[in-house]
Write a structure and sequence with these properties.
The protein is of the alpha/beta class. Helices cover about 45% and strands about 10% of the residues. It is globular and about 90 Å long. This is Cytokine-like nuclear factor N-PAC.
């Protein structure tokens, strides 16, 4: 059924309506409890979501209203997709009707040719009359019933008899495509859209998805101007052959209030580029959050959004059930825990500490030991992403340590990220995170090197970007970083000094196991030169300047 989804109004305002269609959900995706809802696939995106009945309206009667509300390019593409679908559907219906009429004409013609003459028919009737009289009453009844069903019922009546049941559970193969007969749904479905039937979309191939995600979609939709977006997420925990586990988001379409926040009190230490976005999303999803930052002024915005203020890390830990921390480097992570009024002073049996900083395995292991020695529970959970993904709640979280604590953090991880992986014992997440950032940092240096080589050889840098965007290397990361360089805009989305720190730690990780990392080592030298050119507090794409000076 072709619908418009009008998202609910929350503290952060109302989301614009978006066209979609009701489809079958994945078999292993459970319907949310509470009010009736349908699984909707949105046009112009690869996103799905459970949408409440009262948030759905028929497409055609509200089309003009919807277009006035939302004038974005992405939205117009969605409307165009709807119209294209309608044209194709209409064409298929006409073709089907034409083929049906031709088949009917051929059948009638065949029947006319095979029809016996009047004399022959009379003779056959006379011969068979005796046999019919000898038949049982049951036989007569059955013949009469079949004859009546074939002759007296109109095609419309037969279609009605074959329609899904109106009461009870629908047949399994039509689950969630059959609209329940409630007054609310009747109001929603009135109009021309009520006649549309959609085939199940579960079998459609999912674009750009990791094979571990099965048919679950993880695409990112267009964000509102202020980056306020609540994320509809359903969890699926699956064991991999390696023994790691991942909590995966089924969808990223904005539906405010879809995540049930934990009733545990949450603390958060560190409101930098990543921490700020994380805290904002925790608050949007209804978590109770107490914040602390070394520069206290950064807390003001979050206090206005409903956060509580902690005077010291120790105070935050002592008053909260689970405390997250996200700071810049190993030294900052250790100082936060072991320093004056630090985390360790607030740890008591049962208190939980989650370190989201990107540090080396030795540092995180040391922190885990001191936390556990005081009766606390520890989880490392560094995040892969940047400021924009943090703001949008689309980070990838790599966790290791206390498995029970990992599960206790599920609503928090849903709020801040699109996927989280549990990687086993403490230290594994730190190693994996350094490897991920090593690849990213090396790639960024290669991009900068290619753009400068194009320039000095008289080639167009824009043309190089256009070519790369049409090839196998095409990605959001590639396009964004190249655009930064072409526009000379190095506003930090991921600090250059931090990617250089991660490269240094990744090289040390390789040294610890006697594994060569020559590519990372070469990239590290370029970033060190960029730092010498005062690019530390710019975006990592400013490594480009190391090649032009």
């Amino acid at each position: 059924c072709l619908m418009l989804s009008f998202f609910s109004r929350g503290k952060l305002g109302r989301y614009p309506p978006w066209p979609g269609k009701i489809v079958n959900p994945p078999k292993d995706l459970k319907k949310p409890r509470g009010k009736k809802c349908f699984f909707v696939k949105f046009f112009g995106t690869e996103d799905h979501a459970w949408i409440k009945v009262e948030q759905l309206k028929p497409y055609h009667p509200h089309k003009e209203e919807m277009i006035k509300i939302n004038k974005g390019k992405r939205f117009q593409q969605a409307v165009d997709a709807v119209e294209e679908f309608l044209r194709k559907t209409k064409g298929k219906d006409q073709a089907s009707s034409h083929n049906s009429n031709e088949e009917k004409n051929r059948r009638n013609s065949s029947e006319e040719r095979g029809k016996p003459s009047a004399g022959e028919e009379k003779r056959k009737a006379s011969l068979s009359e005796g046999k019919l009289k000898k038949g049982t009453g049951e036989g007569k009844k059955r013949v009469s019933s079949v004859s009546s069903e074939r002759g007296s019922k109109s095609p419309l009546k037969r279609a009605q008899d074959q329609s899904p049941r109106k009461r009870g559970r629908p047949p399994k193969d039509e689950k969630d495509l059959t609209i329940p007969e409630s007054s609310t749904v009747k109001r929603v479905m009135t109009g021309t859209v009520a006649g549309f039937k959609w085939p199940p979309s579960v079998s459609e191939p999912v674009k750009d998805s990791d094979p571990h995600f099965h048919h679950f979609l993880l695409s990112q939709t267009e964000k509102p101007a202020v980056c306020y977006q609540a994320i509809t997420k359903k969890l699926k925990i699956c064991e991999e052959e390696t023994g790691s586990t991942s909590i995966q988001a089924a969808d990223s379409t904005a539906v405010n209030g879809s995540i049930t926040p934990t009733d545990k009190k949450i603390g958060f230490l560190g409101l930098g580029l990543m921490g700020s976005g994380i805290v904002s999303n925790l608050l949007k999803m209804g978590h109770t959050v107490t914040v602390w930052n070394r520069t206290a002024e950064k807390c003001d915005l979050f206090i206005q959004e409903g956060a509580r203020l902690g005077r010291t890390p120790a105070e935050v830990v002592s008053t909260c059930d689970i405390t997250f921390a996200c700071v810049s480097d190993p030294k900052a992570a250790k100082d936060l825990v072991l320093g004056p009024s630090g985390v360790l002073q607030g740890i008591r049996p049962g208190k939980c500490y989650v370190d989201m900083s990107t540090v080396d395995a030795d540092t995180v292991t040391e922190l885990a030991q001191v936390i556990v020695s005081r009766g606390g529970r520890f989880l490392e959970a560094p995040v892969s992403g940047n400021q924009q993904l943090s703001n949008d709640g689309m980070l990838v979280i790599l966790a290791a340590g206390d498995r029970g604590l990992y599960e206790d953090c599920s609503s928090c991880f849903q709020a801040m990220g699109k996927t989280s992986f549990f990687l086993g014992e403490v230290g594994n997440a730190a190693k994996m995170m350094l490897i991920v950032n090593m690849v990213q940092g090396s790639f960024m240096a290669t991009i900068a090197e290619g753009l400068t080589l194009a320039q000095v050889t008289g080639q167009s840098q824009q043309t190089l970007l256009d070519i790369l965007n049409q090839g196998q290397l095409a990605s959001i990361f590639l396009d964004q970083k190249c655009q930064n360089i072409l526009q000379g805009n190095f506003k930090p989305d991921f600090y250059l000094k931090y990617i250089q720190k991660d490269l240094r730690l990744a090289i040390a990780l390789g040294d610890s196991v006697n594994h060569p990392t020559p590519m990372a080592a070469a990239a590290n030298e370029v970033y060190k030169r960029a730092k010498a050119l005062d690019q530390s507090d710019n975006d990592m794409s400013a490594v480009y300047r190391a090649y032009i000076h």
